[in-house]
Amino acid sequence: MTTTPVAERTTSTPRRQGDRIFSGLSRGAGLFILVALLGVFVFLAIEGIPGLTQPASFYAPNATTFLGYVGPLLFGTILAAVIAVVVAAPLAFGIALVISHYAPKSIAVPAAYVIDLLAAVPSVVFGLWGINVLALKLAPIYGWLAEHASWIPFFAGPASVTGRTILTAGIVLAIMILPIITAISREIFAQTPRLHQEAALALGATRWEMIRLTVFPYARSGMVSATMLGLGRALGETMAVAMVLSVGGGVTFNLISSSNPASIASNIASNYKEGTPGKVAVLIATGLVLFLVTFLVNFGARWLVGRSERKMNR
C-alpha cells in the first residue's frame, strides 16, 4: 500500500500587540541610552578640546601643560577608586555570602534591607561623616603607622594630623560602593543552581567547599561586573572626595600624609564656579578624560565577563 505524502501546513503565529509594544519600548530605551552617552561625549569634546591647548597660566601653579595638569588628577582618581575597591569588594562578597547561604532568613532579609538602604544615603552625608567622625578616628592610627611602619612606602609619613588623607577618602568611597557590589553579588549567589550545590554536599563537601566549587565558578562573571560597577561609581564620585580630601598636589603613594593628589571630579567641583572661560575649558577637558577612562574600565569589564562566560561554555 502506498501513501501519499501530505504537505504539512506551517502557520506562523502572529505576534501579539503587547509583544510588539514591549519590543519597541525596549529598543527605544536602549537607543536612548546610547544617544545620551553620545550627547555627553560630543558636549565634552566640543567644550573640552580647547582646554587642551590653553596658555600655561591656566594650568598653574602645578603644571604648564594639560598632560602635566591632568596627570596627578587622574592618578588621584584611580588611586582613591582602587583603595575603595580593595576595601569594599572582599567585604561585599562576604556579606553577600552570609545573606544568601549562611544566615537564617529572619536575619538575612533585614540585613539585606539595611545594606540596600546605604545606597540611598546622599554622598554629602558620607562626606560630612568622613570629616567629622572617620578622619578624627583615623588620625591617631595614621600617627602610629608613620612611627612603626614607615618602612612601607604607603605609610612613610609624616602623618596628617587631621586624618583627611587619600586613604580616608578611599575608605569613605568603599562604604559608598559597598551596597552596589553586595546587592549584585547576593542575587548572583542566590541564582546558583540548587542541584549543583546539593550534589557537592552529597559528595561530602563542606559548605565552604561547596561554595568554592559551585557558587564562585557560576557567579564569577557577575562578581566581576559588580566590582566594575562599584569601581565606576568610585571613579566618578565628587562631593564625598571633595569634602574629605585635603589636597596637597603631586603624585605620591603615601596614603597617610597631607600631600594628597586630588581627583578629577573633586577638582572640577572645587574650581568650576570661580573659573574663567579658559579655566572652565580646561576643567571640561579633564571631565572628558574621566569619561574616557570610565568607558575603558567598563569596556574592559565586559570583555572580562565575556571571556569568562566563553571559557565556562566550552
TrEMBL record:
The chain crosses the membrane at residues 25-46, 66-99, 111-131, 151-184, 238-256, 280-305. CDD domains: TM_PBP2. Its main location: membrane. InterPro entries: MetI-like (IPR000515), MetI-like_sf (IPR035906), Phosphate_PstC (IPR011864), Phosphate_Transport_Permease (IPR051124). Keywords: Cell membrane, Membrane, Phosphate transport, Transmembrane, Transmembrane helix, Transport. Pfam families: BPD_transp_1. SUPFAM superfamilies: MetI-like (SSF161098). It is a multi-pass membrane protein. GO terms for cellular component: plasma membrane. GO terms for biological process: phosphate ion transport. It is found in: Cell membrane. GO terms for molecular function: phosphate transmembrane transporter activity. It comes from the Bacteria. Residues 74-301 form the ABC transmembrane type-1 domain. Belongs to the binding-protein-dependent transport system permease family. CysTW subfamily. This is Phosphate transport system permease protein.
